[in-house]
Amino acid sequence: MGFKCGIVGLPNVGKSTLFNMMTNLQVPAENFPFCTIKPNIGIIPVIDQRLKEISSFLLSKKIIYTNINFFDIAGLVKGASTGSGLGNSFLENIKQCNAILHMVRCFNNDNITHIYHNIDPERDIDIINMELLLSDLSVCEKYLIKTRIINRKLENVKKGINLINFCICNLKAGIPLREVILSKSDHFFLEDFKLLTLKPMMYILNADIHKDSKVMVTKILSKFKDKNVTILPLIIKNNIPINSQSINFLQKKTYDLDNISNINFYDIIREGYKLLKLITFFTAGPKETRAWTLKQGATIKKASGLIHTDFEKGFIRAQVISYHDFIDFKGNMRHIKLAGKMRIEGKKYIVQDGDIVNFLFNV
């Protein structure tokens, strides 16, 4: 599976420009609010260099990458949760996404208007976050109104009401639900609500090389220093379109905030995978080498269902080789087997990032 990332922010902060450069599309990016009305959708391949290396040893005829869907969502404004600026339809678009890229303008440019007439990244962040929070609050309060006509003595209804009241208390205190400790059963119950503040969020700071931009970035980093928040400052105009380069998922990258130009589009995908707790496993052979995206902690049986439902129904076992072992032995299957590096795993095995898998099944 790929994942859906919604790019949100105020009007004129660079969302469509980022979208165009990441997807190689040319959607309008004009200097006026609400240039984007319907969300633009771009599907880009994740060019994982491990695929090329695996394929080179097996002489695969085809390489198939996994994909990411990016949604360029129209600019939100204060009052979006009550319909301002076509806000209700824009918020609905965010609900369809797995993660939110919150884009923030951190540069001065007199030729690019700002909807609130001056550049203040902290204020802009607070406006967007408040609208997402108010939207969730409205959803939760509507649920409580609906439950008034249901038998509140039923145990599952009582649990649901208690959980929603807990969410409302946090939302009224200005706490997004992603920062609240919730159990697996809580998350399962809240899935259908598609609450916006429960979605993982990454901040993209649209910066430039000037000193005032660096001051703005530093302030945002300071604002979130005590929170577990992903923040990527980058200079959009300096970046190469993302689908022209390979992404090295094995690289342990440290971000040099003194040189923002070192941070690029590939880091958005790398951090996006961490944010959504995704891993990649591979199927490989002479016909094709292919990448598959999976949630961390998923079993090998669950992974087989991504390839075909019959694989999951008739799963017997799987042959698994780690990417590192495969490369160390230069793809020589005989040597890999002799060294005991090909493992036979049952249905409860938890797939690891970089596993190369051959599924055995019977339908």
From TrEMBL:
InterPro entries, alphabetized: ATPase_YchF/OLA1 (IPR004396), Beta-grasp_dom_sf (IPR012675), G_OBG (IPR031167), GTP-bd (IPR006073), P-loop_NTPase (IPR027417), TGS (IPR004095), TGS-like (IPR012676), TGS-like_dom_sf (IPR023192)
The keyword Nucleotide-binding is annotated on this UniProt entry: yes
GO molecular function annotations of the record: ATP binding; ATP hydrolysis activity; GTP binding; metal ion binding
Residues in TGS domain copies: 277-361
GO CC annotation, single: cytoplasm
Protein's name according to its UniProt entry: GTP-binding protein
Keywords assigned by UniProt, alphabetized: ATP-binding, Magnesium, Metal-binding, Nucleotide-binding
One Pfam family this sequence matches: MMR_HSR1
Ranges of residues in domain OBG-type G: 3-252
Listed Gene3D superfamilies: 3.10.20.30, P-loop containing nucleotide triphosphate hydrolases (3.40.50.300), TGS-like domain (1.10.150.300)
NCBIfam families in the cross-refs: redox-regulated ATPase YchF (TIGR00092)
Co-factor(s): Mg(2+)
Native source species: Buchnera aphidicola (Cinara tujafilina)
The UniProt record lists the keyword ATP-binding: yes
